[in-house]
Amino acid sequence: MITLPQYPNLHLVDHPLLKRDLSILRNKKTSNVVFRTILHRATRMMAYEVCSNLDLTDTEIETPLEKTTGYVLTEEVILVPILRAGIGMVDGFLDFLPDAKVGHVGLYRNEETLEPIDYYSKFPSTLDSSLIFLLDPMLATGGSASAAISFIKDKGGRRIRLINLFAAPEGVRKVSGAHDDVQIFAAALDRELNASGFILPGLGDAGDRVFGTD
To answer: N or C terminus of the chain: which is more exposed, having fewer CB within 10 Å?
Structure first.
């Protein structure tokens, strides 16, 4: 895990297998079927790293030979994908956290103002006491992520981690400035945004590439 001095809230997951998979995701020739498969695999690698400091508690278990000390997670985790591209990251986390609950928050970006507009949300009742992983493959302008975090906080959520694959400096600054208590985990910090608010070099529209839409 790499932390950059200029972005203290950002943690970059650095792994050769993840870099390989990010390159496949970036490639415009990658089909929707392959894109979904690689997104799942890359998310699993992110989940493994993001969960590396979850709290454990001791418990007594019995092997076929004797009693010994085992461990269980003490954290209740809620996964909250930002619709719609974030849905593609849920199963990768559920592979490691099968007991996690799943909420949803729906936001879309006004293509003229680039501001997020919310249209749907539903969360488990334990939002206020759970560790929340907010999932979205792309952190571009940071508007949607920042709005989603504010929305979750308004509903009672307090412990939030933002999980992205690709991040732009503008988005990191936006989220960190608005929510300095939120840690951001990403696999790549890209160069910048273009005039339309897309990450460069990025991979295009993650939702379109997950679901095969234009």
So the answer is: C
- Summarize the confidence of residues 204-210 as an average pLDDT: 92
SS3 116: strand
Q: Structure tokens of 65?
A: 């030979």
Q: Is 165 helix (H, G, I), strand (E, B) or coil?
A: coil
Q: What pLDDT score was predicted for residue 109?
A: 67
Dist. CA 60–CA 80, nearest whole Å: 32
Q: Which two tokens stand for residue 167?
A: 């991040």
Buried b (16+ CB within 10 A) or exposed e, 92-105: bbbeebeebbbbbb
Cis before 84 (ω within 30): yes
pLDDT at 110: 73
Quote the CA–CA distance of 175 and 171 in Å, as a whole number.
6
Distance CA 159, CA 44 (A): 21
Give the pLDDT score at 100.
Answer: 97
Which sequence spans correspond to the domains of the chain?
A: 2-55+72-211
Express each pLDDT in 30-79 by its tens digit: 999 999 999 999 999 999 999 999 999 999 999 999 999 999 999 999 99
What's the CATH number for 2-55+72-211? 3.40.50.2020
Q: Looking at the DSSP assignment, which residues form a beta bridge with residue 69? A: 60
Which residues, 6+ apart, have CB-to-CB distance to 66 below 8 Å?
A: none
